C-alpha cells in the first residue's frame, strides 16, 4: 500500500543506563568521534574554500603569483558586470535552466504517464531501466558523443537530415543552433530522471481515488488535471530544485563540445569562472564569478533544504 | 472496450520503445564506432555495421592509456571507501544519538552538497599545492570524498532511520560500544542501502571531470581528462574517441542496470524511496 509520509525529526532517546559516570563519559567521546571527523572534513574541504573564495574575490591576484595580493574591494564585481561575456554567460545559464526545466518536466510527465499506463506488462520494467540509462552516463562522454554526432561534416545527424531531403545544419557552429543543441543534449540526458521521479509520484496515488473519479464520470483529462498533477506537484518541485542546483554547475558538456563558443553563445557561468581562473589566471575575477554562483546557489539551497526536510515519499 | 484498450496499450508501448531508442541510440552509435578504422569512423555515408573483429582501437588505447584508467579506478574506489568510513558513523550518530543540534547539523551537511564545486576550485588548488598533492591521485580521493560526503550522509540517514531502536538498545545493553553496534548490528540490517550509497559515490567519482581537470596535469590524470584531451588539442584523435567513451561509460551503464529501482532514492538523496 503506497503511503505519503512526513519526515520524522530525529527523536530524542536515551539508550545506555548511565549508572557509572565513566560509562557516560566514554559514551560522549565515542559519540564525538562519530560526528566530528565528517564535520571537520566538510569545514576544511567545503566551508573554508568558499570563505577563501570570497576573500580572493576582493583582491587582484594571479594564479601564477599567488603570494602577491592587492586589495581592490569590490572592483572585481564591478568589472564582472561590465564584462559582456559574463553577462552573456549569466543570461545563457538562466535561459538554459528555464528552458531545460520546462522541457524536462513536460517530457518527464508524458513519459511517466506512458510508463505508468503500461506498468503491468512485465518486460516494460526492463525497457524503463534502459530508457533511464543517460542519467548515469559520464557527462563528459555525453559531450564527446554529441560532438561527434552533431559534427557538421562527419556527423550522422546531418547525413540523416540529407537522407530525408533537408539541408544540413551547423549544429554547434552557429550561435542559436549551438544553444539549442546544448539544450537538447541536456534535455536528452535528464528527462528520464524527471520521468522516474514523476512515475514514483504517480505510483503513490491510491487506486481508490482513480476508481472514485471514474464513478464520478471523470474523463482522462480531468483525472490528469485534478488527480495526477496535484499529487505529483511536490515531487516535481523536488526534481526541479535538484536540477537547478545541478545546472548551476553544468560544465563538462560545454567544455568539450563548444568551449563556450561560437561567439560566447554557449558560455555558462561555471565555464566563465573556470576560464578566468585557470586559463587567464585572473583568480580575483574568477573568484568573484564563483562567489556570485555561490550566492545564487545559497538562495536555491535555502529553499531546497527546507523542502527536502518537509517531504518524504515512500512506495510499497 | 477491451480491444480498444489493447490497441491503446500497444500504442503506448510503441511510444515508450521509441523514446527508449532515442535515449540509447547516441551511445550505441558511439559503441559501433569503437570497432571502426579512422577512415570508417569519419566516412560519409556512414559505415553502419563495422567489422566486430577489428580490435585495434582497444589494444592501442590499452597500451597507451591504461595507467589513466587505473587512476580513475583508484580515485573512485579510494574516495568511495573514504566517504563510507566518514559518512556511516556520522549518519548513524545524526539519527540515533541524543543530540540537540542533530537536525541543524544534518541541514548544514545537506547544504554543502548544494554548493557549486567551482566556488571551491582555486582554494582547493591552493590547499593541494601547499600539501604537495597536485597531480596526485590522493588529491582526487580526498577531494571527491569531500564533495560526496553530504550525499552519502543523507542517503545513509534515510536507511539507518529504519533500524529499530529496540535492537540497538539491546546491543548497547549487552555491552557493545557504539562502533560495535554500528558495525555488527545496524549495518548488517541495511546492506542494500549500503550498496546504494557505495555504488552512487563510485559513479559520481567515476564521472567527475572538473576537479580532475585542474588538480591533475600529467601522471594522475583520470580517464575523462584524457578523453577531453583527444578532442581539445588541434588534432582530433578520432580513432580513440569512441573507444574511450565506451570504456568510460561501461561501468555506469552496467551499474545503472543493476541498480534499477534504487536509482530514484539515490538521485534524490533519499527523499524518495521505493
Provide a quick synopsis of the model:
Chain A is mainly alpha-helical and 316 residues long. Chain A is built from twelve helices and four strands.
Describe this structure in words.
The complex is a heterodimer of chains A (316) and B (274). By secondary structure, chain A is mainly alpha-helical. Chain A contains 12 helices and 4 strands; from the N terminus they run βαββαααααααααααβ. Chain A has helices spanning 21-57, 75-82, 84-117, 124-131, 139-149, 156-163, 175-203, 207-215, 220-247, 252-257, 269-278, 283-310, and strands spanning 3-5, 59-62, 65-71, 312-314. Chain A is globular, with a radius of gyration of 25 Å. Chain B is mainly α and 274 residues long. Chain B has helices at residues 2-33, 38-41, 56-96, 102-113, 121-130, 137-160, 165-173, 178-186, 191-207, 210-215, 223-232, 238-259, 262-267, and one strand at residues 272-273. The mean pLDDT of chain B is 88. The chains are: A mainly alpha (316), B mainly alpha (274). Chains A and B meet through helix 1, helix 3, helix 4, helix 5 and helix 7 of A and helix 1, helix 3, helix 4, helix 5 and helix 6 of B.
List its salient traits.
heterodimer; A: 316 residues; MetI-like fold; 2 domains; two-stranded antiparallel sheet; globular; disordered N terminus; B: 274 residues; mainly alpha; 1% strand
Secondary-structure-derived class of chain B: mainly alpha
Q: Percent of residues of chain B in helical segments?
A: over 70%
Summed up, the domain count of chain B is 1
CATH architecture term of chain B:
Orthogonal Bundle
Largest interface: A-B, 109 and 108 residues
CATH class of the largest domain in chain A reads Mainly Alpha
- Helix-strand makeup class of chain A: mainly alpha
Shape of chain B: globular
User: In whole angstroms, how far apart are the ends of chain B?
Assistant: 33 Å
**Span between N and C termini of chain A?**
6 Å
Return Rg of chain B in Å.
Answer: 23 Å
Number of domains of chain A: 2
Instruction: List how many beta strands of chain B DSSP finds.
Output: 1
What is the CA-based Rg of chain A, rounded? 25 Å
| Largest sheet: number of strands, sense, barrel closure of chain A | 2 strands, antiparallel
* Contiguous uncertain segments of 5+ residues of chain A: 1-5
Amino acid at each position: 500500500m503506497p503511503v505519503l509520509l512526513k519526515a520524522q525529526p530525529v527523536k530524542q532517546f536515551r539508550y545506555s543506563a548511565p549508572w557509572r559516570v565513566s560509562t557516560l563519559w566514554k559514551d560522549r567521546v565515542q559519540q564525538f568521534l562519530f560526528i566530528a571527523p565528517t564535520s571537520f572534513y566538510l569545514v576544511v574541504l567545503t566551508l573554508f574554500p568558499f570563505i577563501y573564495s570570497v576573500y580572493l574575490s576582493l583582491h587582484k591576484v594571479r594564479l601564477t603569483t599567488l603570494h602577491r595580493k592587492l586589495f581592490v574591494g569590490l572592483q572585481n564585481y564591478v568589472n564582472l558586470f561590465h564584462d559582456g561575456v559574463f553577462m552573456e554567460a549569466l543570461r545563457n545559464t538562466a535561459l538554459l535552466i528555464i528552458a531545460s526545466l520546462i522541457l524536462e518536466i513536460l517530457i518527464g510527465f508524458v513519459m511517466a504517464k506512458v510508463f505508468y499506463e503500461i506498468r503491468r506488462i512485465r518486460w516494460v520494467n526492463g525497457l524503463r531501466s534502459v530508457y533511464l540509462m543517460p542519467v548515469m552516463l559520464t557527462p563528459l562522454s555525453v559531450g564527446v558523443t554529441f560532438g561527434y554526432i552533431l559534427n557538421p561534416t562527419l556527423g550522422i545527424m546531418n547525413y540523416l537530415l540529407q537522407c530525408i531531403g533537408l539541408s544540413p545544419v551547423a549544429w554547434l557552429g552557429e550561435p542559436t543552433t549551438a544553444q539549442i543543441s546544448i539544450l537538447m543534449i541536456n534535455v536528452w540526458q535528464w528527462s528520464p530522471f524527471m520521468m522516474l521521479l514523476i512515475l514514483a509520484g504517480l505510483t503513490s496515488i491510491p487506486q481508490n481515488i482513480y476508481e472514485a473519479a471514474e464513478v464520478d464520470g471523470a474523463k482522462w483529462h480531468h483525472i490528469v488535471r485534478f488527480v495526477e498533477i496535484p499529487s505529483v506537484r511536490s515531487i516535481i518541485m523536488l526534481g526541479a530544485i535538484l536540477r537547478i542546483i545541478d545546472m548551476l554547475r553544468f560544465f563538462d558538456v560545454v567544455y568539450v563540445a563548444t568551449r563556450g563558443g561560437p561567439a560566447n553563445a554557449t558560455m555558462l557561468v561555471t565555464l566563465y569562472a573556470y576560464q578566468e581562473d585557470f586559463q587567464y589566471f585572473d583568480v580575483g575575477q574568477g573568484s568573484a564569478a564563483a562567489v556570485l554562483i555561490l550566492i545564487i546557489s545559497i538562495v536555491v539551497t535555502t529553499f531546497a533544504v527546507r523542502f527536502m526536510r518537509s517531504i518524504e515519499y515512500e512506495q510499497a | 472496450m477491451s480491444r480498444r484498450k489493447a490497441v491503446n496499450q500497444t500504442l503506448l508501448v510503441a511510444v515508450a520503445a521509441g523514446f527508449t531508442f532515442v535515449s540509447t541510440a547516441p551511445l550505441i552509435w558511439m559503441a559501433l564506432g569503437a570497432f571502426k578504422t579512422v577512415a570508417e569512423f569519419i566516412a560519409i555515408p556512414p559505415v553502419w555495421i563495422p567489422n566486430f573483429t577489428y580490435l585495434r582501437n582497444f589494444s592501442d588505447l590499452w597500451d597507451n592509456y591504461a595507467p589513466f584508467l587505473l587512476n580513475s579506478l583508484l580515485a573512485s574506489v579510494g574516495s568511495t571507501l573514504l566517504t563510507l568510513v566518514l559518512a556511516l558513523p556520522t549518519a548513524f550518530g545524526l539519527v540515533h544519538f541524543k543530540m540537540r543540534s542533530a537536525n541543524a547539523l544534518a541541514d548544514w551537511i545537506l547544504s554543502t552538497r548544494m554548493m557549486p564545486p567551482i566556488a571551491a576550485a582555486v582554494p582547493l588548488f591552493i590547499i593541494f599545492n601547499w600539501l604537495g598533492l597536485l597531480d596526485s591521485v590522493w588529491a582526487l580521493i580526498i577531494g571527491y570524498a569531500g564533495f560526496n560526503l553530504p550525499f552519502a550522509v543523507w542517503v545513509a540517514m534515510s536507511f539507518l532511520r529504519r533500524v529499530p531502536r529496540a535492537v540497538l538498545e539491546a546491543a548497547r545493553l549487552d555491552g557493545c560500544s557504539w562502533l560495535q553496534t554500528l558495525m555488527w548490528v545496524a549495518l548488517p540490517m541495511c546492506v542494500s542501502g549500503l550498496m546504494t550509497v557505495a555504488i552512487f559515490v563510485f559513479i559520481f567519482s567515476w564521472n567527475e571531470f572538473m576537479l580532475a581537470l585542474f588538480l591533475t596535469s600529467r601522471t594522475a590524470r583520470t580517464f575523462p581528462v584524457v578523453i577531453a584531451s583527444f578532442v581539445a588539442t588541434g588534432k582530433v584523435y578520432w580513432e580513440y574517441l569512441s573507444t574511450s567513451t565506451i570504456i568510460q561509460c561501461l561501468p555506469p551503464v552496467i551499474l545503472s542496470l543493476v541498480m534499477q529501482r534504487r536509482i530514484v532514492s539515490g538521485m534524490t538523496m533519499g527523499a524518495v524511496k521505493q
